């Protein structure tokens, strides 16, 4: 009897957006208007690529970026929740599916000693070039019209579950914890025995309740959380059953 926990990262595990947090490294902690206005909907990863070029061109080095990223706050109750999951790995497999990048998530999890809690992290691959530029690539190609062009979280989740099945691993229940609009696609893939946990007051919760109002609710159970303590209470009840 194993449960699969799927976490988004920004505004879910950490209480900020890691991509906008890095702007604290920029001169005067802000980006020029021309750069800020260059973002096109659905093309966030390319936009961040330009931000990283700007930072490096302005003398921001890897160690300064790392120092800044490791000051990002965790969401209320999240440190206790991740500690609890880490102590109960016999019940939980745990993955991250995020539109952030491998460098940021790695830095943040390792600094807080949480990297062992997660079995896999699915996010945009990033690395520093020999000249010190942080480069980021889209995670994969997909055909989902609802998702940003670099990442469909439903596709990631489905491929992960298929791979686990090949290894003989299936899950009693999937618990999906997220906040954003791009978490709706995987939530709509969940079955009635699964649970979606949208963060209170954020886009995912609003989109799920909009679907219910339009009389096409999601199939899974929905439990809203405002602090990670709410998630921990639910997980404790699950493993007691």
UniProtKB/TrEMBL annotation:
Keyword Ribosomal protein attached: no
Binding residues annotated for Mg(2+), in chain numbering: 8, 10, 179
Binding-site residues for substrate, renumbered to this chain: 19, 99
Domain of life: Eukaryota
Protein keywords: Hydrolase, Magnesium, Metal-binding
Signal peptide: none
Cofactor(s) needed: Mg(2+)
NCBIfam families attached to this UniProt entry: DKMTPPase-SF (TIGR01489), HAD-SF-IB (TIGR01488)
The protein, known as: PHOP2 phosphatase
Gene: Phospho2
